[in-house]
Specification:
single chain, 453 residues, alpha/beta, Serine Threonine Protein Phosphatase 5, Tetratricopeptide repeat, 3 domains, six-stranded mixed sheet, 20 helices, binds ligand FO1
Length: 453
């Protein structure tokens, strides 16, 4: 039922008698969640109670209110849905290394299960927790379709090298999910005081929640349905046109784990959209996303200049002294006040909607390279802006996207040119050949940003 290759044991402890805890982190959903399904199965086999636990960091990698709000609303739905299954949900505020072992000790946990994230902070949390627990800590990759460590044991060069590895295993992993069985009797769990939770979060209110995208598992599924019904059939032709409104809008849900990529892939495969559209969408959803996890899993420097390929680092260093025609500070970038109306429109799209179209993300990041004092600074600015404004900030996809645009990751060396060195170049006339640039500018360039950096 659950492929054992999806699971790894992070310490040397054995299953004990006592409550099974699912420590939810990256995969913040009740349905189609392999980590929760595994914890539920353990509880059944060991004839023990089950509890789902979330440890809330009051401040997480500078996440502003936009992100906390999206996440907390999703978690409120998790609590409600778990209640219908008689599964208790507990939210602890503080550091996992103190909160989790203390809670495990208090309830005499026999098994702890968590989900997988390739991010450094997640690895650090798990190491600290695994060391202190007397129970085993299992990690389940509930995010990738092919578990990250099974797809490949090393950092891959590009989509070209990962694709055949994923495709060879897809038949084994792209399967239907079993139902999550309810527990026999209702839990006596205290309801969570969400206003108290909001009060304790230190999230910058200057980046407010967005109105147009509703958080949570139910909204994520509605968003998927609408994409499959209305937009998938033109995906191949239109997804690179920022004016076409042809994208899935699923990236924030995927980031917070409010929907499963495997579920999306299964539904997309079943849809009646043309083959070419399904193929183009599944390439983005599976190969490109899992390539980003691969990068972050096997490269500790995924969020800095140090992480990019040696040829790109060397080439950018050779051009570090080249004269830049324009130079902007991170604050100037953040307030969308460069000389370039197209770039400003992209930044305004990001500020106001929490999303930037994938095609514009490349242009946006490459211009940050062109207009920053050093490539190191460009890297920092792009990650800072993405993490601050994008609803899917702090996500492997974002780190890999910046590293592709600025640092040639998963790409090849191009012709040498000023500032860029051998990094692939992009300019506004290239954009104009692909789509109606003026229409895009008109759509986003009007409102003045009310948000500051
Ligand atoms: N995951 C948590 O387990 N606890 C948090 O407090 C938390 C806050 C948070 C804020 C913004 C954001 O974008 C993500 C957040 N996450 C949080 C999820 C986190 O990104 C993933 O779980 C990581 O991969 C770390 O495991």
């Amino acid at each position: 039922m659950i492929d054992p290759r999806r699971i790894r044991l992070l310490n040397e402890n054995r299953d004990g008698k006592g409550t099974v805890i699912y420590w939810m982190s990256r995969d913040q959903r009740v349905r189609q969640n392999w980590a929760l399904l595994f914890a539920r199965r353990k509880a059944e086999l060991l004839q023990q109670p089950l509890v789902v636990l979330f440890t809330l960091a009051p401040s997480f990698l500078h996440a502003p209110l936009r992100h906390y709000d999206f996440m907390l609303k999703g978690l409120q739905e998790v609590e409600t849905d778990l209640k219908t299954l008689n599964i208790p949900f507990v939210l602890l505020q503080g550091k996992p290394k103190t909160e989790l072992p203390r809670f495990a000790e208090k309830i005499k946990a026999g098994v702890v299960v968590t989900d997988f994230s390739p991010q450094n902070i997640s690895g650090k949390w798990k190491k600290e927790v695994a060391r202190q627990l007397t129970a085993p800590l299992y990690e389940v990759d509930a995010h990738n379709i092919v578990p990250c460590w099974i797809a490949s044991g090393k950092q891959e060069y590009s989509a070209r090298t990962l694709r055949p590895k994923i495709n060879a295993l897809l038949g084994e992993f792209l399967t239907d999910f079993p139902e999550l069985e309810p527990l026999a009797s209702p839990s006596a769990c205290q309801p969570i005081d969400w206003s108290d939770v909001y009060r304790n979060v230190h999230a910058d209110p200057d980046v407010p929640p967005v109105e147009w995208l509703k958080p949570g598992e139910k909204a994520a599924k509605q968003c998927l349905e609408s994409f499959l019904r209305n937009r998938l059939a033109s995906y191949a032709e239109k997804h690179n046109d920022p004016n076409a409104g042809a994208t899935s809008h699923l990236s924030a849900y995927l980031h917070f784990g409010q929907i499963s990529a495997q579920f999306i892939a299964m539904q997309a495969r079943k849809s009646e959209a043309p083959k070419t559209d399904k193929k183009a969408f599944l390439e983005e959803l599976i190969v490109r996303r899992e390539l980003s996890d691969n990068y972050c899993c096997y490269n500790d420097h995924y969020d800095s200049f140090e992480g990019i390929p040696a040829w790109a680092r060397e080439s950018l260093k050779q051009h570090a002294g080249d004269r830049r025609e324009y130079l902007y500070t991170p604050q100037e970038f953040a307030s969308a006040t460069t000389h370039d109306r197209l770039w400003n429109a992209a930044q305004l799209e990001l500020i106001t909607t929490g999303v930037m179209h994938g095609y514009m993300r490349m242009y946006w990041a490459k211009k940050i390279l062109e207009w920053s004092e050093t490539p190191e600074q460009a890297f920092e600015s792009a990650i800072f802006l993405n993490d601050r404004f994008a609803l899917d900030g702090r996500e492997p996809n974002g780190y890999a996207g910046v590293a592709w645009s600025i640092g040639g990751l998963h790409d090849r060396p191009w012709f040498d040119r000023p500032v860029y060195g051998k990094i692939r170049y992009m300019n506004a006339s290239g954009c104009a050949r692909k789509f109606d640039v003026n229409r895009y500018i008109a759509r986003y360039a009007q409102p003045k940003p009310s948000i500051t950096a």
